[in-house]
Amino acid sequence: xxxxxxxxxxxxxxxxxxxxxALGGWVPADTTEQLTPTLRCMRGxxxxxxxxxxxxxxxxxxxxxxxxxxxxxxxxxEPYDADGKPxxxxxxxxxxxxxx
Length: 100
Known about the structure:
Number of strands: 5
Order of helices and strands: EEEEEHH
Strand order of the largest sheet: 1-3-2
Helix content: 10-25%
Distance between the termini: 14 Å
Number of helices: 2
Shape: globular
Mean pLDDT: 95
Number of domains: 1
């Protein structure tokens, strides 16, 4: 799905060890900022009107610039639950951007 609404709605925070400046990390560290000693977030998502700096294009249809190296929180966010119903997070983000 090419949407991007969630990437411009929520702070994308995750465990610091996922960044590639930590042993075994994969998220490009230069695309993140430190929140606490143990948490980082994607640049652009910790402001009042968040938009991940890696989000490329317009919503809907935007793409992630680091898709293969995105943090676990992004990998785990799904538009639909196991029963095929839209998830609350996705529904709220899409509504905030005027999408059905």
